[in-house]
Amino acid sequence: MPIKTILVPVPDLSQARSAVETAFLVARRFDGHVVGLHVRPAFDEDKFEVVMELASLGRSNPLVSETGDAPVFAEDEDTQAARHLFEDVRKAMRAQSRDKPCDPAGLSAAFKVIVGDGPEAIAEQARVFDLVVASQPKNDPDHRLRETLRAVLFHSGRPILSVPERTPASVGETILVAWSGSALSARAAAIGRVYFEYAKKVGILSVATEQGRGPLAEELVEHLAWHDIDAALIETELGHRRLGDVILDQAAAFGADLLVMGAYSQSPFRESLTRGVTNYILSHAELPVLMTH
Fold first, then answer.
1. Which of 53, 124, 141, 243 is the most exposed place for a label (fewest CB within 10 A)?
2. Does an H or E element contain 234, and which?
């Protein structure tokens, strides 16, 4: 099944542009639809009461615009900045502006604003999309990006494509799958397969000391051959190196523009204590990473 609907959170962050541009790159391949989602925090009750009182007295307030009989809260600067960024990319990508499917099919997009708790609200919205695209949490002082990624992985039931600060030239032409034989890596490989038929090269990476119980990498290669996908088997040793470094080095050597892997085989808390591979990849990858949990 192709990727037809993509959700991309658009916070007021400089990193958001790369995520938005990458979402359109992926959607263009599938004639898909991109929704830019901006989450506004819930209104402060005290501020809400003051604004409503001013509105009832007929006094103007920059937070409120009148539509009919009910006051409607105007967009704040963050929301306006997010909308402008998304629309700028949409126009550059020549995507139609629409929010309903129609014929003829083609690249399309819409911008959506909701009120709620950022990461959890994004995860809830993501449940009716094929894919979520978000920025990698490298420059993330308040941990919003990492919290969003974790919320999507654990609470949406959908895969997430984590992208670096610089927009990639391509996504999914040369793919490396990190394979451990686990259910997590099997789920990632199954979801990543939607890209395989479009790829020029697919590689299956097996790090010898990390192979757990389950099918070997060569068995995944054979499975993919049944689907007419010619995948290369890449085997290497961990030695005294960090697993995350081995995976990223192999991705670079293979020329990959997409890394596919399962995420958080341990809990995020335990990952932070043990300096786990998921957090390391997210903090150091220079290419898009397709993750599932």
1. 141
2. strand 231-236
Distance CA 282, CA 135 (A): 10
- Average pLDDT along the chain, 293 residues, taken 10 residues at a time: 92 82 95 95 58 55 48 72 95 94 88 91 96 86 83 94 94 95 91 90 88 83 94 92 93 97 66 65 93 90
Assign 110 to helix, strand or coil.
Answer: strand
Q: pTM value?
A: 0.85
Asked if the 174-292 domain carries CATH number 3.40.440.10, the reply is no
Domains of the chain, by residue range, sit at 5-41+76-163, 174-292
> In angstroms, what CA-CA distances link 155 with 2, 152, 159?
22, 5, 11
Q: Is the CB of residue 207 less than 8 Å from the CB of residue 243?
A: yes
Structure tokens at 152: 């999507």
Determine which helix (DSSP H) or strand (DSSP E) holds 152, and give its type and residue range.
helix 144-155
Q: How far is residue 207's CA from residue 261's CA, in Å, rounded to a whole number?
A: 13
Q: For residues 199 and 218, what is the distance between their CA atoms, to the nearest angstrom? A: 19
Distance CA 115, CA 39 (A): 6
Topology of the domain comprising 5-41+76-163: Rossmann fold (3.40.50)
CA 187, distance to chain mean position in Å, is 16
* Cα–Cα distance list, 106 to 34, 36, 92, 111, 196 (Å): 11, 17, 15, 17, 21
